[in-house]
Amino acid sequence: MEKENNNSSRRNFLRLGALGSVALAGTAIASAVSCEDKAKTGKKVKVLTADGKLIEIDSSHVEHHASNDKFSKEEVRQGIEGKKFIRVIDLARCANERKCVEGCQKAHNILAPVEYIKVKKMQNSALESPYWFPTMCYHCDNPPCTKVCPVDATFKRSDGIVAIDNDRCIGCKFCMAACPYSARTFNFGRPEQVKYSEEHKNDTSDPNHCITPYAQEGTVAKCDFCTDRSAHGLLPACVVECPNGAIFHGDELEDVVTNGEDTFRLKKLLADRAGYRQFEELGTKPRVYYLPPVKRNFPFEDATEVHNTKE
Amino acid sequence: MSEEKNITESTKYETFTQEEYMIMKDDLLRPIEKIGKAGKIWIAFLVAVCLAGVVAYYIQETKSKYVTVSLRDYTMWGVYISNFVFFVALSLVGVLMSAVLKLTHFEWYRPLSRIAEVIAVGAIMLAGVSIVAAMGRPDRLYYLVTHGRIQSPIVWDIIVIMTYLATSIILLFIPLIPSLSTCKNHLKNLPKWQLKMYEMLSFGWEGTPEQWKILKKTVKILTVLVIPLGISIHTVTAWLFALTLRSEWDSTNFGAYFVSGAFLLGSAAMIIATFIFRKAYKLEKYLTEMHFDKLGQVMVLMGLIYAYFNINEYLVPAYKMSGLHANHLLNLFTGEEAPFYWSVVFFGIVVPCILPMFKKMRKPLPLTIIALAVFIAGWFKRYLIVIPGLLHPYLPIQDVPASWTHYSPSLIEWTIVAATFAAMMLIVTLFSRYFPIISVWEVAEGKLEGKEEIINYK
User: Fold this and answer.
1) A150 vs B399: CB contact, 8 Å cut-off?
2) Are residues B69 and B190 in the same domain?
């Protein structure tokens, strides 16, 4: 028990260290940097010692470090400790510029017409005004998709993310049928996509690039909240790309969300701006909140261009 | 009322003799002895369609599925899953025509029960094949065993389908044992291996009173067991849909609705099969007009039950027209799918409820035509349950290519579906070529109701 606690707090600490948030006192740092005989990776990471000094060591000395880039299968399934990712989308700021869509496609090596994040034109009734509505996987707290998966290929992580293990997925598509938000897409092996995935497998020219590969052919894929970018303390691609800062990403436990420029207290923002979740009545408990499109930054302009006509 | 019938039916055959039994054996075993030219062509045709399906599946799995099949993100289940639902429904024919009639002492079940059970076994196997055809990664099928999670309705479905398949095979096989012994003793002009097969499969059956006692008891237990199993497989299949949050499937009515539809489909399938076997194997003496008359009545009853559940399924939400259901329902009632939907309602519900009420319509030919219409409408009904709703999700579908908003199965998909049908008919045909499709002893026993002699006939 003692050892386990020790281990987890160490892991926590080191992750935070990599994020540059040098705050916690490192109690177990000595044991983490003990093994001298490991092969060096050449990568340097900053860690905080027990007496408060910030030192640089080779990343091979630290276990479970984000800079090692690779998380074990188990870690990917468990999620990042001490985090609970959450998202708030300010509909008043969305002008359907589709930068989030394109940024996401680039980050995940996916080609149109596949979109993990979609911007839909919504109009609740004739007299109400239309508005733009970005949707994606809501990473529900009561996810209907993970319940029905026969092989545990899609699962809820401790950090709130609903993830997919593409090595496990058998392609039954039951999760797609179960999702009331149509958030999931399937890799049917579209030839252009297959070629593109192959070519851009190791392409890191895009600073927002996610290293998690696109779903294997015959398996399901969807928005993963840019899991690996989150693990490195970076904001998801759509958040970074939005020119109007409409998407706020953050941590429920820290009670903070940010679009990269503005940072808000989550609870206060939701309370002040009457935040809501889509289809609350379905009971899925989404982790994505919306702020109603009031006092808009832009007048609503209908889209004249269709983007995804190509088969 | 049924009891009265039993008495009249059993007294009718008092004069049953050993000679008559020999004639009956000759009649019922004749299809095994010689196979006509038409029979050979029919089998060759079915094999060809099956092979076409295998080729189509090979193409589907080796080439890009985006090109070979019309499935897209919204219509991700498509025709394979509706075909799966259809075959699961069809497999309930064994429950209805063999188990229910047997346990309620409707004596006319006797020549029909084995036909029904073979169809059931074939259908449940092809239901499994349809599911595998729909899978994105069939190479990972074994994950269902190695990583299966009991929370998932798919795992429930696999468990009940496997159990039902096993039970159905045993239920088909056990009453077959005396028939195999009959084949062995009666048919001498067959190839050696075939006689050897009968010998092996009859497990040294001698027809002693003790053996008969065990056989009867086993069959009775299995017959009782197969009813809840059959109802479970179709209820769980209905749950695959009803356990999702989608409006078109969000119904507490779904299990009963599916089971009632399966019974209607079962009666139609039984009529078609009876008609074909009667003509092809000249079994008019055993598959009589009385059977069509009764099956027509069964069809009306099942049709009315199905109509009742359809009214609950469609008209109750239609009356309220809630925002969640309106999209899907209006599309079926007055929208793009309306002509399709209403023809399926007409041929699949109105026709079986009304036409067989008239005695003239319960003659073999008219009833078979009605049954064919019900059968085909039954297939399209499953299509309508699975597919149009997928294109009407809660969030509107916008800005996607045309093929994403309209689903029409590709040639590959149609070929595979056709092959599943051919494979099912091939199973039934081949079975009837090697085993007596009408159970000799069961029919004889029916005619000898109350007499003990049956055990002496071999």
Assistant:
1) no
2) yes
DSSP character at residue A130: P
Alpha helices in B189-322 (DSSP H): 192-201, 209-242, 254-280, 289-310, 316-320
Instruction: Report the C-alpha gap between A168 and B155 in whole angstroms.
Output: 15
Distance CA B180, CA B200 (A): 9
Nearest-CA distance from A149 to chain B in Å? 6
**Residues 6+ positions from B113 with CB-CB distance below 8 Å:** B97, B98, B101, B102, B175, B439, B442
Q: What is the pLDDT of residues A78-99, one digit of tens each?
A: 888 889 999 999 999 999 999 9
Q: Is residue A16 part of a domain?
A: yes
A112 interface with B at CB cutoff 8 Å: no
Could you tell me the two tokens for A222?
A: 């969807």
**Which residues are within 8 A (CB) of A93 and not within 5 positions of it... i.e. 6 or more apart?**
A242, A244, A245, A246, A296, A297, A298
- What pLDDT, on a 0 to 100 scale, did the predictor assign at position B143? 95
**CB of A151 within 8 Å of any CB in chain B?**
yes
How many structural domains comprise chain B?
Answer: 2
Q: Which of A181, A168, A141, A180 is nearest to A157 (CA)?
A: A141
Residue with the two structure tokens 């259901």: B325
**Radius of gyration of chain A measured on its C-alpha atoms:** 21
Instruction: For residue A10, give its domain range.
Output: 2-68
* Residue B17 pLDDT grade (very low, low, confident, very high; cuts 50, 70, 90): low
Q: Is there a contact between B149 and A219 if contact means CB atoms under 8 Å apart?
A: no
Q: Which two tokens stand for residue B271?
A: 């009529």
**Separation between Cα atoms, residue A160 and residue B157, nearest integer Å:** 30
Distances (CA, A) of B48 to B41, B55, B432: 10, 11, 19
Q: How far is CA B305 from the centre of its chain?
A: 18
Look up residue B296 and give its two tokens. 């027509």
Q: Which of residues 224-243 of A touch B (CB under 8 A)?
A: none
Print the domain residue range for B272.
244-392
Strands A220-221, A288-291: pairing is unpaired
Instruction: Say if pTM beats, i.e. exceeds, 0.90.
Output: no
ipTM of the modeled complex: 0.88
